[in-house]
Amino acid sequence: MKRRLTVAATALLLALAPGCAAERPPADSGGWDETGEVTYWMWDANQLPAYQRCADDFEARNPDVDIAIEQVGWDYYWGRLLTAFVANSAPDVFVDHTSKYGDYTTRGLIEPLDDLIARDGPDLAQYVEGTGDLWVGDDGRRYGLPKDFDAVGLFYNAAMAREAGITPEQMQDLTWNPQDGGTYGDVLARLTVDRNGVRGDEPGFDPRNVETYGLGIDYPPGGGSGQTQWSFLTATLGWSHTDKPLWGTRFNYDDPRFQETVAWWRSLIDKGYMPPVEQSVGTELSQLMQAGRVALVSEGSWNISTFAKLGGIELATAPTPIGPQGHRAAMTNSLADSIAAGSPNKGAAWKWVRYLASPECQEMVARGGVVVPAIASVVPTAEATIGAHGLDITPFTRQLHEGTAFPFPAAHHAADVDSIMESAMERVMAGSADPSSLTAANEQVNALFTQG
C-alpha cells in the first residue's frame, strides 16, 4: 500500500483542471440508474480471488447488475487511472489510496458519499476505529467506505534468531532509541553475520563482507511517509509528519528527532547491519529473506500472505519496538473504493461500493487470508485465517487494540512531496548527503502549500 506516482502520472493529474468531471446529480435524486455493468479496478492480484467471490455473490443478489473487475499492478495502476480520467473513460469504481484521493477531490473526479450514506447506510460505527476518518477529505466530505486496514510489524527468520540465541519473548518486547538503537539495534547486530561466520556484535566482524544482514532495506527508502521503513521509529519520539494528523499543510522533516532517526538508520549501512542501497534496488525483501541474505525486515501486514508462502524458511512475526516515550507505534492505513464522478452508472456503482464495505463481502475477504478487513467484527476471522497459514498477524493488529497506531499522513500534493523526499532520502542513504540536508528538502515540501 505504498510506492509512488510517476512523473508522467503527476503531469496528467495536473492537466485535470477542477471542474472537468461530469456534472454530479444530487445524491438523493431518482436519476441514477441502478442497473447495468459496473467496471471495477483494483491493483492487488492476491486479493482478486476474494473480490471475485464478492462480485459473484453481489450479482446473485442483484441480477440486473454485472461487475467487470480489472486488476492492474500497482506500478502501472495510477498512471493508467489518470490517463483514463483524461480520456473520460475511468472505471465506475476503483480501489483508492489515502495518499491519492485528495488530488482527485480538488479536481472533482470522485463522488462524495455523505448523502448516499445518510440515505442508505451503512453504520460507520462498525468499522475499526480511525479507518473511517481517513476517508473524510479536508472539505469535510466523505469519499470512501473503508474496506480493510493495515499496520507495520517485523518479519524475522526464526531459525537464525534461535541460532543467535535470541528468544521469541525477546522479539516481542524490543526497545529502540536513536542513540544506541536499544535492544532492537542489538538484535540487528547479532543477526548480522559476515562471510567468516563472525557476528556483527563480535570482535573481528567485517562490515564489507557480509553474508547475512540483520535488517533488509525496502527501496526506495521511504519517500515522504516512510510507512514501512522508519515511521514506526520516528513516531515513538513524538514526531509527526505534519502539523495535523490528516490534511496538514506544514511538514516536519526539519525536526531534529526525524533527522536523528534517519542518521541512526543510515548508520546501520556503515556498520554492515543493513545492505547498501545499491544492493537492494530491484529486489523484493521477501526474496532476500528466502535467500538468507537478510534476517529481519519491517513490512506491512498486507504482505503477510507473501511471506507465509515462502518455502524453505521458518519465519515469525514481532511487533515494532518500544521507543523512548514508552510505547511502540505503527502507521496504519485503510483502502476504500471510490466512485468516479464521471461514471454514467453511479446508481449501480453505489450499490457495489456499499456491498464491498458490508460484513458479507468483508467476511469473504477475511476468509481469503490476504488482508484484514475494516469491519471490527470480522477482524478475528482474518486473524484466524492468516494464522492458519503459518504466521501470526496479532503483532500487527495489536497496534490498533493498544492504541499505538497512527494514520497515514493524508495531504494534498502527495505525489510532489514523495518525489522531493524520495530524492533527498536516496542521497542520504547512499551516503552522498548528510541527514541535515533534509531541512532544505522540507523547505521545498512546505513551499508546495504556499504557492498560489
From TrEMBL:
Family matches, as InterPro entries: Bact_solute-bd_prot1, SBP
Statement: the UniProt record of this protein carries the keyword Signal: yes
Signal peptide residues on this chain, from the entry's feature table: 1-21
SUPFAM superfamilies: Periplasmic binding protein-like II
Entry keywords, A to Z: Signal, Transport
KW Amino-acid biosynthesis (keyword) present: no
Compartment(s): Cell envelope
PANTHER family, A to Z: ARABINOSE-BINDING PROTEIN-RELATED, SN-GLYCEROL-3-PHOSPHATE-BINDING PERIPLASMIC PROTEIN UGPB
Family, per entry: Belongs to the bacterial solute-binding protein 1 family.
Name this protein carries in UniProt: Sugar ABC transporter substrate-binding protein
Organism: Pseudonocardia zijingensis
